[in-house]
Structures are given as structure tokens and as C-alpha cells.
Amino acid sequence: MPRVLGEVSMSLRYSDGQVDEDRLWPTTGVDIFAPSVPWRTFRWRHGQKHYSGAYWSSTMRDHVVYESRLELTRLLYADFDQDVTAVFAQPFLLTTTVDGRKRRHVPDYLVLREKNVPLVVDVKPRHLLTRPKVNFTLAWAREIVLSRGWDFEVWSEPPEGELANLRFLAGYRRDWLFDQELLAEIRQTDLHGATLGEAFHAFPRHPGWKVRAAVLRLLWSQHFVTDLTEVLSQRHVLGQGPATVIGSGRRDLPHPVDEAEPDDGDDEPVYRMRGSRSGGQVNGAAVRVGVGTRLKYDGEVVVVEEMFGSAAGNELLVCDEAGRRFRLSLRVALSSGRATVIATGPGPEADDDRETASVLFALLSKEELAEVRERAAHVNEVLTGFRSGSEEAPEPGEPRPQYAATVPKLQRYEAKATELGVSVRTIKRWVRAFLLDREAGLVHGGPDRGSGDMGKLGRADRRWVEMALEIMAEHGEESESKPTRAKVIRMIGPRLVARYGKGEVKLPTRATAYRWLEELERRLPTFRLSTKRNRDIASRPPGAYGKLRPTRPGEYLLMDTTRLDVFAMDPITLKWVQAELTVAMDWYDRCITGIRVTPVSTQSIDVAAVLFQTYRPRPPGKGWPPWAVWPDHGVPHTVFVEREALEEDPEGGEAKGSAGPALVPETIVVDHGKPYISEHITSVCQRLGLSIQPARLRTGRDKGPIERFFRTLREGLLELLPGYKGPDVFSRGERPEDAAFFFLHELEAIIREWVACTYHHRPHRGLLDANVPGQRLSPAMMFEHGIARAGYIEVPRDPALGFEFLKTEWKPLHHYGVEIRKCRYNGPGLDGYRGESSEYTGVKAKGMWPIQVDPDNINYIYFRRPDTRRWHALEWEHAPALKFPISEGAIELARKVAGEKSPFLDDESAVAELLERWHLGLGLTLPERRLALRQAREQSAFDLPETVWDDVRALPSVARILAAGEDDDDDAEYPPTGEDEPYEGPVPSDDDEDDELEGPDHDEDFYADALEDA
Questions:
Q1: Contact 732/969 with Cβ under 8 angstroms?
Q2: Cα(873)–Cα(946) distance, rounded to whole angstroms?
Q3: Strand partners, 924
Q4: 979 backbone dihedrals φ, ψ, rounded to 5°
Q5: From CA 332, how far away is CA 201, in angstroms rounded?
Q6: Of 113, 235, 276, 724, which is least surrounded by CB within 10 A?
Q7: Residue 440 burial by CB count (10 A; 0-12/13-18/19+): exposed, middle or buried?
Q8: Roughly what angle, to the nearest 10 degrees, separates helices 462-474 and 485-500?
Q9: How far apart are CA 595 and CA 766, in angstroms?
């Protein structure tokens, strides 16, 4: 037991960046933890095995970080515990002197409880608890925590069934997503004693998927309780009272075990018969179990003293080395895995270096197998007088006189040797091998396995092989290029001389070295594939792949961005442009819930737009088949059908509904790209109650399904489109950009229709029900499967939901309005709050007000009044002078362009200058071109409702996602909000004449030479 000497201090880190060090541990209260932040956040490195992330806790109403999936299990249990009032991750740093050395330790969690003292939790896998270093640290930390009167707990792996239930029920922890009237109706109904299946069908006037989700919500809130030790089924009985969970927390620590020391019982002698090279041993496999037999039971050696029968079966009375006696079931001793018999004589072992008879015979040709059988017949005749080995199946003339049972054995050996023309010694060797291994012992020499792991390398020197693999691995690193076999062979020799000495390792011939490298290429690809592919293979985990297994729709939402392998058209210049595709995929059913095509690069607002489509899917396109259109509520037609959702719009002639399912995600799985880990996306997830699980660095398999979707999209659609350029430069045509045909918005519409009509209804190999493994399901069928299993959580219908996905800026309210990036905004929504400080505090707030900003449209920003909680649009002072939205990036570039001519800047002249540059020469520089492409896209990101101030159509690109069926505003002040249509040529405007539209281009026309390169 470590001895804690000296004073114990505690250090905290606060949200404003300050560090409170050297607080006295015994006198510090728990109220100081409320404004604190984790002492350290999770770190990322290439090759790490654990997953870190942020769990949205219903207890904290905020994100709580975790460094591993094991820590996440502790957060699930804490969130389920009704006694827990707060959970703090990495809460503080303990510093003290232990055994004469200064020690530091940061616990994993601090759990505050309503009815109990605070609980300090350290999370460690069970197999690490006995390591001396880990055990020592946990021991002195436990002593310090208990000395203050708090509880200390070490958390390890919980029971699998219980964890599966809590993980499943955690999807129902967000209370605002459920119908409160239905929850109240279920609470008022006496369902105690009913089964879970009966509760699901107890309210026939409500949709079944809705009732199922509500009942599971009440299970999470513990209005109902049931047995959580077994995986939930409809047979589970509902009861009353607080739920009881087992968990895996323990207050005591196991004794440390030095890994160099063997466990008890390892000193027992191991008896093994020296086997032949042929293998296939079958005799001597049985071990007698009776009085006096020794067993190794739970690591201790016990001796059987008595065997007797009972009503439960045969039992053993055993005695351990300390003289303690106890009863043990014979079935448990032989089949449970907790007990093994200690053999007292030679016999076969499971780890013998010999192959089974079936393996040996499979390696023989028909002629060799016939030879072995003939040799076995000769041995049988020597031993029994019959070639079959049994007097019940004699051949004609058997037994022959020289092999009769009355003839001495040595004379029979001599007769058989004379008959076959071999020596008597050979016959004796055959008989000995046959008695030991039967026919398998007669295989000539057995297979040459070498050392057991050399494969086709034959008798290659292990040192040469290890050096070759070492050099090949070095070239698998990112800084190295792909080598040739000749280069590797030239490097092996000098390195072997430097490591082992000259002449110590015999070098093979060049032909042999090439043959061996060809075999090593199977283990570590280096020469044949591309360098990128070789690095990906080298980064594979050496063991079995781990896998997150979603249990319901929405549990994991995969999000990723890829550059499309097809060129698109710039609507302004009619020239080709690179495009990026951002998608969101529900992992459980592989349904695509969000799609967005952006020019050149993806920003956080694009990621937020895709996430927004998960809640509010886009409307279907014109002419889509009815089976590709989802009802507005997102539930499949076969589960719940609303007649109004399937009727066609008499005016537009298109079916109502959406292009995909609507669902409420629980956790988003993203990579480490800046748009995904930005403060914008993190704040959106925090407000909507979404957990964040970043994938590991440079580990594409963590998002394997979505990476496979990108390939399916390329092979199933993109390669059929004009402008396809292939996945790499080796697959590219001579000038594929000349064939670019579709505009960006048209390309997105094509992808969206292909997903809805083809991808969602095609069976996938990765989608199946474990109860019917041979049946392949499509994403739409799997989504229906998930709803039938877990119910459906309805998406919030709040029309102002889109504001939650915009970027938040903290700004003061002046008498003239709000100023953001040198632009002033004003509106009646600020009346009553001008010049006042907000109630928000913190590093960024500091008494300022949260303002929602769309980077793609800075004409308006949005402010929510605290008194009414309603959104108000604040208009840019120069917005009336414009006929279209303009992005904040464009205005920054406009100032820069105008500054090249005049040192006196104002927004109006800057915009005019930028427009002039666009008309004179579009995209003269790369930043100008990127901004022009985003401006020309004319596609919405969010659908924001009309605000209280006026009927301004804020964010004209926003309404395009959700405003299906709305009539376009006749006022030409703002762009239309209808569905994008393919380009069909120029449309007459107020000042256009028909002959002007159809006439030839003039020399001074901007587009006169735009088609020359197209």
C-alpha cells in the first residue's frame, strides 16, 4: 500500500482560461466545479486505438468529453442514474507526495449525487488493474479521495447485455422530442405487470411507432422499470420503482501482479509425447478423471478426493492446496473452461506442432494417397493377418500362413520385408508410426512446415526475411516512395553485414531473392500496388477489426466530403469547375439523409446545411416515381401512410413528401476536417443534443459505409455522366473537362434523384437481419426494419429550426444596431435592448448578445428577443441597393479590390467595384473565382421562416430545401424559392426583346467568347 505523505493540493481550469492551482484538497467545496472545464481534453494521434468524443448528457444538458469508448459507457450509466445531478470530465489535478516522490493524477470523472457524497471515478480496462504501475496510481488516488469522505470507484467493462440495453435506451433521453400528451396518457395508464409488447399495443388510436418510442422514453426516465440484465424483448415485464443496474464499478483494487511472474500452477510439469513429423496423433488422447486426478480450477491446483452422483448429475469433492474442500460439478469441470485436467502422462496436446490427419491427406495426390493406403494394408496384415485389420472383413486366402497369429512377430516382420524388398528396420518403423498415428503416420516424411510460419519461403534464413520486411515497412511510410525489388535486395546485404557481421547470413541468389520478395509481397504489399494503397494496407490493425454496431435509425450519422470525379459547369462562364459532395448517411440503414454539392471547397455552413436536411429533407423532384417519395414525417409507406402525404398537388402536379427520410440523429461521426470540428458545428450539436464521435486520424475504415457509398456513386452514376474524369490521374481521359455539361445545381439534383430512386431501393450486402442472415435488405427496407424495432422519434416541427444551424456571433447592441465585419444591421427587433448587456457570461459572451449569421448571405442577420423568444431579421444598411444576396467572403474581397484603387472604403462602392470586375473579367484570380462560383450557385442551405418584423424572404437559397409547394413571390425583389430546373436558355425579362434573345452575339457581349473553350 503506498504511503501518502505531505499536503494534497488540487488544481482547476476554468472556461475563461484561468488556472486555479494549489487549492487545499480537504477544504474545497463542490460548488467550484460548475464553471470549470476539463483539465485536459482528448488528444489525437495517428495509429491510436481508442475513440474520443463528446457525449451529449441529458443530466448536464451539454457535452461531456470522453477519451475512450469505455469512458463513454460510464457516462451512459451516470446519465441513466436518477440520483446523479452533475458529471464533470477530467475535473481536477491532484498533486501530492507518495513514497518520497511527487505524484500527479487526473481522475476521469467527478459525479455529484443528490442522496450520496460525491463520487470520483477512474476508468481502466479490467486486465490493466493488476499491472503494478496502474495499481499503484489508483491505490494512492483512492486513499486521498476516501480520506476526504468522498467515494472512489474504478470502472471497467460492464455486462454486455446491460450495456446494450442502456445504449439502446439512451436514444430516447432527449425529452423535447416526444409528444407530452401521449406520455401523460401512458403515465396515467396502469401498465405495471404488463409486458413490453403489451404496452406497445395498448394505445391503438395512436400510431404504433409513436407509442413504441414513448414507452421506451419512459423506460429511460424510469417511470417503468424492467430487468436490464438481459437484452430487451417484448417479453420483459414492466414494474415500478427505481431501476437497478449492475455496472462494473468497484471500490477495492485487486492485488498487483508482476507480468514476469507465472501464475499459480504454471510450475506443473507438462508431459508431451514426442510426436513424429507426420502428425495426426489419435492414441492417448483420453485422460482418466477419478479419485486422485489433479485439476487446475480458477488458477489453483485441486485434487479430486471423491466422486458421487446427485440429482444435478455427477459431482466431485475436491481439495485445494490450503486443505479447503468444496463440491464441483463434473460438467463444469470438463466443459465450463474454468477447470482443466493436469495430465500425468504423455499424450496429444492442442498446441502440438503437428497437423491433423485430414490436413495431411488433403496435401497428397491420388497416387500418394493410394500408396499410403496400400502401406497401411501391409502393416495391418503384419499385425492382424488381415489387410483390412479385422477378421470380419477378410480377403480371399486370408490369413496367409506367414502372417498367421501363431507366427512370431519378428518372423512376420521378416516375411513382409522380403515380400516388399525393404529392410526389417523399415517395417518396424512403419508399425511404430501406424500404432501412434494410424494411416497419418505412414505419410512419407509429412509436410515440410519449416519453422511453422515461413510459408512458401522454404528454408529462407529468418534474419534475411526479417530484414527484408523491415526495409519494405520503411518504404510504407508517408515520406518514402515506392521502391523496386532490386533496390530492396541491394539494401538487404549491407544491412545484414552491419547488424550480424560479414558472412554470418548467407545471401540467396538473385532469382531466389526475387521469389522470396514475391511471397513477402503478400504479407506487406510494397511493389505491385500504388503507394497510397500500400500505405492504407500497412495501416490496417493487426488483429480483428472492431466495429460500432448501431441498434436503431439515427444512432450514428456518418458525415463526410469528397471531391466528385466529374467536372461541372460554371453557370456564369460556362467553363468547367471542380465540385465537392458532402453527404450524411444513417449508419443503421445506409439511408442518405443529406446531400450538398459545393464548388471548389466545403465550409462549415455547408456541413450544417447537410445536417439540417437530416431534420428537414428536400422536396422530391418533378417526375419522381411515387415509391421514391417519402411522406413528410419520414415514416415508410408500409409502416404508416397518410392519405394527404400521397396525394398529388393539383397545381404543381407533383407528389407531396420529401426526397428522403427525416430522422433525429443521436451521434454524428465525422473526420478531423476544419468544417466538421469547427466551433459552428460543435455549437449546433450542443444546441440540438447531438453527441460527436470523431473518427481516428487517417483511418477511413471508421467511416467505412460512407466511403463505400462514394465508390458506389462513382461506379453507378458518375462514370456515366459527361465530364467524368476517373478516380485518379491514371484513369483520366485526355480532356474530360471539355465534356462538362451539367451545372452544379443540376448535378446535385441528378445525384439526389439517383439516391432516392436507385440507391435507397437496391439490396446491400451489409444490410441484413441476424435472425434471417440470408435475406438482403435495401436501405429503405432497413429503415422500415429499424422503425418496427425501435419506434420513430418525430422530427421537431418548429419552423424556426433553421436558425439553430446558422453561425453564432457575439456582438453588443448599439443605438444604431449591430456591427459585424464592418457592416451595420438594424431593425425594430432590437427596440428595448439597445445599449443593454445580456445575461450571458463567459469567455466569448462577456455580456454581449448572440446573433445568428449566414456566411452565404450577409444581407440579413437574425436576433432572438429574450422576452418573446421569437426571431427578428436585422437588415444590412446597404441591402436595399442590391438585387441578390452576397456572401461575407465576397464583401471582404470587394474591399480588397476597391482598396487597390482608392484608400477610402465604403461597402456600397466596394460592391460596385466587385460587380465591375465580374463583368469585365470573371475569376481573374483564384479567390475571386471561388466566390463567384458560390454566388452563382443559387441554391439554398436552410429554410428560415418569415420573421416578425416584415415579410422579407431572408436567405433566398434557404427556402429551397423545405418550401416545396409554396408559390413564388411575384415581387421580383428576391430570388424565387422553387425547385431548381435545368438550364433551358435565356428567359425574357422586362427590358428584353425576343429578337435580342434569339439574335447573334455581338463582339462587345461578355459571353461572346465564353463558348469558345467549351
A1: no
A2: 8
A3: none
A4: -75, 140
A5: 43
A6: 235
A7: buried
A8: 120
A9: 22
Stretch among 115-119, 139-143, 475-479, 702-706 having the lowest mean pLDDT: 475-479
Query: 523 vs 215, which has greater pLDDT?
Result: 215
C-alpha cell belonging to residue 15 = 472556461
Helix, strand, or coil (residue 341): strand
Which of 796, 752, 748, 757 has the alpha carbon at shortest distance from 780?
A: 757
968-984 pLDDT per residue, tens: 333 333 333 333 444 34
Residue 578 burial class via C-beta count within 10 angstroms: exposed 0-12, middle 13-18, buried 19 and up? middle
Provide DSSP, 782-837: HHHHHHHHH---PPP--GGGGGGGSEEEEE--BTTBEEETTEEEE-GGGTTTTTPP
Buried b (16+ CB within 10 A) or exposed e, 150-179: ebbbbbbebeeebbbbbbbbbbbbbeebbb
Indicate the pairing of strand 93-98 with strand 4-14: antiparallel
Q: How far apart are CA 602 and CA 166, in angstroms?
A: 36
- Largest interatomic CA distance in the chain: 125
Which amino acid, residue 700?
G
Report which residue type is found at 1001: D
Cis check for the bond before 542: say yes or no (omega within 30 of 0). no
Residue 176 identity? W
Going from the C-alpha of 291 to that of each of 288, 305, 315, 320, 323, the distances in angstroms are: 10, 5, 12, 14, 16
In the chain, % of residues over pLDDT 70 = 76
| 854 has pLDDT over 50 | yes
Q: What distance in Å separates the CA atoms of residue 302 and residue 264, rounded to the nearest whole number?
A: 12
- What is the spatial distance between Cα 51 and Cα 69, in angstroms, rounded to a whole number? 6
C-alpha distances in Å from residue 482, one per residue of 101, 329, 530: 50, 61, 8
d(CA 814, CA 816): 5
Whole-angstrom distance, CA of residue 497 vs CA of residue 751: 59
Distance from C-alpha of 77 to C-alpha of 68, rounded to nearest angstrom: 15
| Range of weakest confidence among 38-52, 87-101, 587-601, 720-734 | 720-734
The C-alpha atoms of residue 125 and residue 632 are separated, in whole angstroms, by: 46
Q: Which residue has the higher pLDDT, 903 or 42?
A: 42
Helix/strand/coil for 700: helix
Contact 295, 302 (CB under 8 A): yes
Cα separation, 120 vs 112, whole angstroms: 9
Cell of 496: 545484414
The cell for 547 is 466495429
**Which residue in 61, 57, 84 sits closest to 242, CA to CA?**
84
> Residue 593 and residue 662: Cα distance in Å, rounded?
7
The cell for 975 is 430570388
Burial class (CB in 10 A: 0-12, 13-18, 19+), 637: middle
Contact, 130 vs 124, CB < 8 A?
no
* CB neighbour class for 101 (10 Å; exposed up to 12, middle 13-18, buried from 19): exposed
Q: What pTM does this model have?
A: 0.73
Looking only at the bridges linking them, the beta strands covering 556-563 and 667-670 are parallel
Give the residue, 790 or 906, on which the prediction is more confident: 790
The pLDDT, as a whole number, for residue 354 is 67
Report d(CA 839, CA 148) in Å as an integer: 36
Chain-centre distance of CA 408, in angstroms? 73
Q: What is the pLDDT of residues 130-162, one digit of tens each?
A: 899 999 999 999 999 998 899 999 999 999 999
Half-sphere exposure of 968 (CA within 13 A, CB side): 14
Going by C-beta distance under 8 Å and a sequence separation of 6 or more, which residues neighbour residue 375?
Answer: 430, 442
Percent helix, strand and coil across the chain, each to the nearest 5: 35, 20, 50
| CB-CB contact of 554 with 490 (8 Å) | no
The whole-angstrom distance between residue 714's C-alpha and the CA centroid of its chain comes to 22
Q: In the predicted model, what is the mean pLDDT of residues 609-633? A: 85
Mean pLDDT within 618-640: 72
- Is 91:107 a contact under the CB 8 Å cutoff? yes
pLDDT band at 348 (very low <50, low <70, confident <90, very high): low
